Amino acid sequence: MGETRHTKVLIIGSGPAGYTAAVYSARAMTDPILVQGIQPGGQLTITTEVENWPGDTHVQGPDLMVRMEEHAKAMGAEVISDHISALDLSRRPFTATGDSGTTYTADAVILATGAQAKWLGLPSEEKFKGFGVSACATCDGFFYRGKDVVVIGGGNTAVEEALFLTNFATKVTLIHRRDALRAEKIMQDRLFRHPKVEVLWNHTVEEVLGDADPLGVTAVRARDVNTGKVTDIPCAGFFVAIGHAPASDLVKDQIELHHGAYVKVKPGTTETSIPGVFAAGDLTDHVYRQAVTSAGMGCMAALDAERWLAAQEAG
């Protein structure tokens, strides 16, 4: 039987929103506990160069998250390496269960679980996951030195992945289902100028092709959305960069969601449909999805939680 820990503020998630919430909650003397989750540091730990974090012309994503964690600890927050697998928001104190066996009870909860990579949903994609199919170029790009790779997507994530992969791959083919990218113009300019990158417009990926023994990718099958013509593109790696989905499974049956499973918050606040439960970062943000906006929401969540707790005590 695991131990039970109680805190005024339990923060679930450890990206910019979670760590910023921890800094502000600790400064408010609420003795917060932050549970990091499966991916401590969140999506920025699988990002290389970050060029839009105020105060840093460029910084490595993992380094930035290490600094945030150290800041939260220095302020007095307790950072725990655990993963919350169950959360009961039906009554207070709220109760969370960790994979470690520890039970966490809290007067207020800040949800900062972020988002997870989306997949195409192809059987062949599932078959080759980890064997040539990846959603993280910074994690796996090193394995494709001197090889051809394919990236699918049209936003910032896809362009960043493609550019990063040019550090290792001989050729990077970016496939997009439309005739224009959604990525920031400065990112597009870098992509189009790079001699290793080729863009295949108006195509979708229908199948990942590969060998069974040893298991590995040899090509992707792409279809022209206008003509229906099918083309097999030889490659050793296929990187899926079509965006992210909010990691709201923990609360999907307990709290109000909108816009495809994002946690809904009251405009101008981080208040959710359950009093005492607050949400911040990519979990709630279907518009901006930036590290700096996530951090700002983390600050808001901590302040909202502090004021709500004060009102409860006064009542």
Please give the structural blueprint.
Layout: E1 4-12, H1 16-27, E2 33-35, E3 49-50, E4 59-60, H2 61-75, E5 78-80, E6 84-88, E7 94-98, E8 103-111, E9 115-117, H3 123-127, E10 133-134, H4 137-140, E11 148-152, H5 156-165, E12 171-175, H6 185-193, E13 197-200, E14 203-212, E15 215-224, E16 230-234, E17 237-240, E18 244-246, E19 257-258, E20 262-263, E21 277-279, H7 291-314
Parallel strand pairs: 1-2, 1-8, 2-5, 8-21, 10-17, 11-12, 11-17, 12-13
Antiparallel strand pairs: 3-4, 6-7, 7-8, 9-18, 14-15, 15-16, 19-20
Can you describe this structure in just a few lines?
Helices cover 25% and strands 30% of the residues.
Written overview of the protein:
The chain is an alpha/beta fold and 315 residues long. It folds into 2 domains: 183 residues, FAD/NAD(P)-binding domain (3-Layer(bba) Sandwich); 118 residues, FAD/NAD(P)-binding domain, CATH 3.50.50.60. The protein contains 7 helices and 21 strands. Helix 1 packs parallel to helix 2 and helix 5 runs parallel beside helix 6. The chain is elongated and about 70 Å long.
